[in-house]
Amino acid sequence: MIERLGLAALRTLDPERAHGLALAALRGGLGPRGGPVMSPRLRTTLAGLDLPNPVGLAAGFDKNATALAGLARTGFGWIEIGAATPRAQPGNPRPRLFRLAEDRAAINRFGFNNDGADAIAARLARRGSGIAGLNLGANKDSDDRAGDFATVLATCGAHVDFATVNVSSPNTERLRDLQGPAALAALLTRVAEANAALDRPVPVFLKIAPDLSVDALGDIARIAEDTGIAAIVATNTTLSREGLKSAHQNEIGGLSGQPLFEMSTRILAALSGITTLPLIGVGGVASADQAYAKIRAGASAVQLYTGLVYGGASLANRIADGLDTLLKRDGYANVADAVSTGRADWT
Ligand SMILES: Cc1cc2nc3c(=O)[nH]c(=O)nc-3n(C[C@H](O)[C@H](O)[C@H](O)COP(=O)(O)O)c2cc1C
Predict the structure, then answer these.
(1) pLDDT per residue over 33-44, tens digit each?
(2) Of these residues, 39, 129, 142, 169, which one is catalytic?
């Protein structure tokens, strides 16, 4: 009830301000307090990481690692911070986040606003237990974007359990060009070198856009396998605007939430047919059924962001609990047993 009132109040505010208040509330100890939802069925391994449950917080919610302790209490099994770039940068001018309430969606064009890798590394160094990783980004004005990803990993890598190479944000001009085969191979090779130089190398994930052809997916999967990527995150936000009803549908930026669910799940299912790498399903997850569908389409774990805008901070709890019930109903001993069992529905 209190959460519903809080959500209704937040929704009357400018979306970026509401987001700032939600982070402040989490920092102040408000919100769910139980910690990650646990059960033997939900416990799972992702690229060597031991997750209490497979429901993760997607990148972009806590870009600067300021609310990690509060977030760790909300039920998520794992959390992705960032994106961090080597130097702090302000991002695009406001407004740059829009609610599309009728579509249960959002459009953002933040453009990697963040405090920079040094400040974020200092906060991550003080964090408590729980699985947390960092989304790596490049500065807008960088003349060596591939080098930026390696720099952020070198700066923050000692304090995280995993890192994600994000070449799929639509909000930094030409960033997505790094998904092309030659650029991607060069970039991932440099990131692998930075990772090998850490005292304790971490699993490195690659996050891709949903607006890719099946041919491009094949190239990306092969390069990811060849360069030691540990898992592929499918997907980031989309440039598509198909089937929207809300007033802000023509804003520039990346679309997330419900309209992304099918599209990102199709990419996930296609990938699961062409690579043996573990996959992380992201895009439009707002219920246990949708998390389960991603797992059955090929995901070893899932992440969400926009669902929180409409579902509130207890959403991770509800999804993890519901997922446990669904796995039990269908006779699966654990998450891993359900992975890819429904891929045919999506291809
Ligand atoms: C406001 C906002 C900021 C985001 N920032 C990042 C980011 O910095 N790095 C990244 O890889 N993805 C970022 N994303 C994408 C999300 O991590 C996720 O891939 C996408 O929103 C789809 O999931 P959802 O439908 O559950 O939101 C952002 C999304 C939103 C809505």
Answers:
(1) 888 889 999 999
(2) 169
